[in-house]
Amino acid sequence: MMSRVHDVHSKNEVLLKILCGFYLISLGVHFIARGDISALPLPVSVALGSVLLLIVLGRRYPVLTMISMVCSPYVFILALSAAYLSPYSFILLSIALLVSLIYLDIRIVLFSSLLYLSTAIYWFAVLRRAGMAAGSEHNNMIYVAMFVLYVVVFSWVLIHFIKGRWSKSERGLTSINHILESIDITAWVYDLGSSQLILSPGIRRLTGLPAEALTDFRTLLKLVDPADIPLVQHSQKEMIMRRKEVLLECRLRHIDGEIYWVQVRGTPQLNELGHLVQLEGVIIDITDSKEREECMEYLAYHDDLTGLPNRAFFHMRLQQYINESVGSIALMFIDLDNFKSINDTYGHYAGDRLLQEIARRLSRQIRESDLICRLGGDEFLILLVNSDENLARKVAERINASLSEPFHCNEHQLHASASIGIHYSPDGCGDLEQMISKADEAMYEAKRKGRCRYSVDQSPI
Prior knowledge:
Keywords: Membrane, Transmembrane, Transmembrane helix. The protein is an alpha+beta fold. It has 15 helices and 12 strands.
């Protein structure tokens, strides 16, 4: 209903411009025919133009405005013929009949045709009284009636044809929208002239808002994750200033708080003069693939049993610390003393549960700036940043104290201890494999001393 009213308003505005031209041409033709404008109905022209302008700009009564627009040419022609009787007026009147086609409504065409016939009857009556058309009224009315019938039939065929094409286009657009919704793609167009954003219905699933509520770019930008707003604004500038196609990934926040990852593709569109007129593209929901990507990345750098970082992550982070020159570091190699016997006695399930609990206890003994990883089996590494030998010794003592507390699994009470080797690097430099090797040697030294101990290696690498 609202789209129909908006359509009538738009056509009223177009017809107002056409009628203004119609009045000016009519006055011009009669001025050329007579050579002066003294008898022309200028007050009527100004009054009609003013009234039509006010009701069109008011946009309150679209149907009444439409009827007024159709009637106004006939009022003007009657006023014109009252001032100066000329066949030119009747020719111009036929144009008034044809302009009613702009509404593509056969009812308006029929209404205009009735006005045309009524005006023609009045016209011939005036001519007969003036003695200018005696004896020819019958034939002239036949011609007028045939012309009106032709205009009505032509209008009906044209309206039926255009609406048929529109219907096919709308069905095709509906099908395209259904397809876009089913594959999680939202099409978008940003008109630079009107600063209006047009989105396909699929945007509702990503934002919770209908496309009609997001006709302004700034409104949509408010739904973008704050961390991604500079990237979106930069991409828009790239399209407008450098006229480049863009491809970016950002996060959209649904009104219920859920976050969607989307891929935005944008292309600048130029007119035939090479001027940038609009931006257009698609928004693709990539949340599932992004989650899979993040999951794969997590698994690539974390141990799937304990959730701790693995050797690859440990190596990457250590290299980062070395490059940033964070200062002295201490590397701790931890090996459980009796893990194999627990596996053999209670089974692998109990062994796995034990490793998970040990991982949690070890994590509680270090700072947030430090790093722990599981090498594999029953071996763990801990990296202490900005540490000295005394701090490393205290951490080792806390670890042994923590592991001395019994573990409970399936009503069994398990006991575990660890041998710890420590390699200290005052300058924070060195090769990871060599550092691990040195810490490993210190760990075996601790085992030789009786297990549940720690040993420090300070030999240079």
